[in-house]
Each structure stands twice: as structure tokens, then as C-alpha cells.
Design a protein that fits this description.
This protein has 266 residues and is α/β, with parallel strands linked by helices. It has 6 helices and 14 strands.
Length: 266
Amino acid sequence: MSIRVLFLGEIVGRPGIQCVKEALRPLRTEKSIDLVIANGEGATGGFGIGRAHSMQLLKLGIDVITGGEKIYYKKDMVEFIAKNPSILRPANYPQQNPGRGVRFLTVNGQEVCVITILGNADFPRTHLSNAFSLAQLLVDKALEEGAIPLVQFHASPTAEKLSMGFMLDGKAAAVIGTHTKVLSADGRILKGGTAYITDNGRCGSQRSVGGFDPTTEIEKHILQIPVRSQECWDDLALVGVMVEISDEQKASSIEVVHIPVKNERT
């Protein structure tokens, strides 16, 4: 039996949560989606994710929340992530860190393994183990256990993400890039049957700078004075990609999801 997996782009602040609240459940029903994976590390004001917002997103229909370099930005998540297997931090953080980077689930009678990894370039605050060596190890282990590997790669350079996609082609059913929060136009099925996209965008304001108010972000560039980014509520949409995995455990399709959402602040 085939499996439909929805990978939501990074959820940015209250506008992003509003998009999930309004659009996710109807979409799950309409498209018969079996599994929803979302990058949630920007859910709390765009910088990290707190315990309350993570619980809210799980109740709204997300099955697995992934994070990146901001996963530990909120103090209550440092403790909570160790207690909730549905919230993943990058697997290449030190082993003794709170939380986990891998989640095994049974979907439509088939074992699935969700893996999230942080890139090694352009993250000056983190110094993690090699993303590529670990990805190979974790994907091979998942295959040995009869699970379909789904990799979410939170990385900055396009070249790094493409390299990961081609390296895991034919092994992982999907390699989905996150972090830049801009939907890329290169979603495709690679030669070996792996669904790939460099970045699956963001949930929240589409007429913004990464989900934030443009005026504030422009001032930062001109004045070079640190000020807090402000959430933007213009042109809201639920954005991501949907991947269908065939009975042969290969990706058979990848399509962009872009659902406009009314601006109703909560």
C-alpha cells in the first residue's frame, strides 16, 4: 500500500501556526495524507519552539516536528524534548544531548524512519558531527530494520543539500531541505527513486522576509542595529511538499502544496 507524506515548510510564528490550524486537517482529509512532518523550530516568535506551541501543533494534526540550529532556543524545550518522541532535534548533536534525531513509526502497516540532520556549513554557533557520514549510517540502519527512510536536511547552502540528495538517492525515499524558508523550484524524483527538494518553504506570511515584517528587516540592513524581528501577517499560506511512496518503497511523485489562509489573528 502506498504512503502519502506531507512535509510542511518551517512554521514561522503565530501566522504559521494559524495556517496549520486553518488548513492542515482539511488537507489531510482531502488528499488522504498518512503522515505529516513539519519543521517547527520557528514556531515561537520565529526563533525556536516552546513547549506550549509544540503541543498545540501536535494536536492540530502534525505527527512529527523537526528542528534545526534553533531547537534549544527555548528553555522549556530543552527539558520537554527528552520526554516527547514526536519532537526531533538534529541527529548529529552530541549523543548525550536531550532528545533524539530519529523516529520510527508504523504507517499503513509499513515501518517508516524519520531522520533529521543539521548541515555543517554556515551555522557558527554549532559544531556538530559530519552530516554526511551520519546520514549514511542512519539510513543504512533504517533499511536493515525494514523501515523506509525519510530524511529532512536542515542546511544552508544549496550545494550541501544537493550533495545529500544525490548521496542518498536510491536509499532514502525522500530528502527534503529546510532552513532558508523559501520554496525552491527543483522538486523532483531523482534517478534512484528519491524525492528531493532543496527547500520546502515556510508556513506563514509569503509577502515577508522569511516570515518577518520587511520594514524591520530593511532597517537592520541599513542601520546595522540589532532589533527584534516582527511577525508578518500578509499573504498567509500553508506551504510544503507532498510525497507519495509506492509499494516498492520508492517515491512515485512529489508535488508542491500551497494553500492560502485568511488573516485571522489568534
